[in-house]
């Protein structure tokens, strides 16, 4: 029975280890992990702060590009007036290139999230060399105008002339709705 004080002291040491020392080590490990995590966040923040002028410059570039894109896009306040203006513009372009428009009509508008897609169907005839100039002019109008479903029937080609043609096309307009548009 002389082992009783020794066993009691061993039990006291184990008790102290289990309920005092182990929690202290756990707390230290948790504190180290939290400190490392905070250090990583601090390093990332410092990197963002260092890159802030580049990020602001990139943001300014994106803003300028977006503004240029909006200026390049056509807008409308009243869809009917827009259609009339575009039809007149194309009639003038065709007339200036000596191409006769035999018929033109508007297809039903297709509503989109930011505006509408309008389609003008044209039937026309003239000289092929004049059409090449016209097609180049239409392509230069920008991203909001596209020629689709182009069909040409050519005839009368000779070594001196490209000949004549008759054809039809659908001109697709994709204007954006102006903020002050009339609904």
Summarize the structure.
By secondary structure, the protein is of the alpha+beta class. It has helices spanning 3-72, 79-96, 128-139, and strands spanning 75-76, 100-106, 110-111, 116-127, 145-155, 164-173, 176-177. The chain is rod-shaped and about 125 Å long.
Report what the structure shows:
The structure is a single chain. The chain has 183 residues and is of the alpha+beta class. It is built from 3 helices and 7 strands. Strands 2, 3, 4, 5 and 6 form a 5-stranded antiparallel beta sheet that branches. The termini are far apart. A hairpin with a 4-residue loop joins strand 3 (110-111) and strand 4. The longest helix is centred in the N-terminal third of the chain and has 70 residues, at 3-72. It has helices at 3-72, 79-96, 128-139, and strands at residues 75-76, 100-106, 110-111, 116-127, 145-155, 164-173, 176-177.
């Amino acid at each position: 029975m002389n082992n009783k004080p020794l066993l009691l002291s061993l039990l006291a040491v184990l008790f102290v280890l289990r309920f005092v020392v182990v929690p202290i080590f756990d707390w230290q490990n948790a504190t180290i992990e939290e400190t490392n995590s905070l250090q990583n966040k601090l390093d990332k923040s410092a990197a963002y702060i260092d890159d802030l002028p580049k990020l602001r410059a990139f943001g300014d570039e994106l803003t300028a590009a977006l503004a240029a894109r909006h200026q390049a896009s056509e807008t409308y306040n009243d869809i009917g007036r827009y259609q009339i203006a575009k039809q007149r513009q194309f009639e003038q372009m065709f007339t200036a290139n000596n191409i006769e428009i035999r018929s033109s009509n508007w297809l039903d508008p297709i509503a989109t999230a930011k505006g509408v897609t309008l389609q003008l169907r044209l039937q026309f005839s003239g000289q092929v060399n004049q059409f090449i100039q016209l097609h180049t002019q239409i392509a230069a109008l920008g991203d909001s105008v596209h020629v689709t479903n182009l069909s040409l029937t050519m005839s009368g080609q000779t070594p001196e002339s490209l000949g004549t043609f008759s054809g039809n096309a659908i001109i697709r307009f994709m204007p954006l709705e102006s903020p002050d548009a009339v609904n």
